[in-house]
Design a protein that fits this description.
Length: 60
């Protein structure tokens, strides 16, 4: 990760930090987007277990 060598920030450093933040955000977005899928499956399976009704296909 970029840092302020010598304790001084520059416009270039701020640009590099912004790019790094965007890169990190991109790497975080996919797992966060995927996080709800298991919850959806668990909810459907729990409903099936309790009611005997089939799980609904295509629910995410």
């Amino acid at each position: 990760m970029p840092y302020a060598a010598g304790g001084r920030a520059t416009p270039e450093l701020l640009d590099r930090l912004s790019i790094e933040r965007e890169r990190v955000e991109g790497r975080i977005a996919e797992p966060v987007g995927t996080r709800g899928r298991p919850d959806s499956v668990i909810t459907g399976a729990t409903g099936n277990l309790r009611t005997g009704r089939p799980c609904r296909a295509g629910i995410s």
